[in-house]
Design goal:
Length: about 230
Amino acid sequence: MIQDRKIALVTGANKGIGLAIVKQLSELGHQVFLGARSLQKGLEAKADLSNPSNVHVIELDVADEDSIRMAFQEIVSKYDQLDILVNNAGINYDTWQNATNADLNNVRETLETNLFGAWCMIQNFLPLMKKKGFGRIVNVSSGSGAINDMGAGTPGYSISKAALNILTIQFSQLNQEKDVLINSVCPGWVRTDMGGSMASRSPAQGAETIVWAALLPKGGPTGKFFRDKKEISF
Ligand SMILES: NC(=O)c1ccc[n+]([C@@H]2O[C@H](COP(=O)([O-])OP(=O)(O)OC[C@H]3O[C@@H](n4cnc5c(N)ncnc54)[C@H](OP(=O)(O)O)[C@@H]3O)[C@@H](O)[C@H]2O)c1
């Protein structure tokens, strides 16, 4: 048993990078809620883990505020505490459209999960962190959302991740006085259903910097954007 055991929640964790984050945090000895919008898929993902004893599956659709509130109640009744929130759930790498021809309903749907989902999660769980005076929030972003390096592709996805980065900045500015650190991380190009089979990194490699940001020590950076444990431009 580790000395400083944390309670963590990872959204969209039934596969891909999210599942790799759950594996890494739980194998370090932390208690981890594996968030999945399909409870069945979450249970199947847990059943495949070689060391599932620290993992709790929780039904959580971040695009549904009622689902977020129910997950909050479940975590409060079990631990009355959340130390680490990883906003990993993400959708819709929309390579087929650009800003001119974009289907705005598709863009709205993307924002609902990638931006508003993370926003609502932080609104619900941050008070729990502030009450304890400790919290680590990691928003899983993407280089596609870096304004400094912005192209014209994937408009819904890129705008959702740029806006998610702004959320990181705004929430970090609002929470300077407690040991609550909020950062964005780009996992790199990762072999998942979203990233495709040609991507250069495994899910475990993609999860590495996210786990690092989730376990930053007191006085660590906040309101920043990282890849490979190094700060990058928003
Ligand atoms: N892969 C890459 O190269 C790459 C690069 C940069 C950033 N990222 C970011 O990394 C994160 C994880 O991506 P990934 O590559 O692991 O993608 P993935 O394999 O497609 O997994 C996405 C996960 O998000 C879940 N999800 C989608 N909508 C949700 C919702 N409304 N509520 C809760 N969960 C939801 C999915 O659940 P279902 O199984 O139910 O669909 C799935 O578990 C995303 O934020 C993505 O934008 C990925």
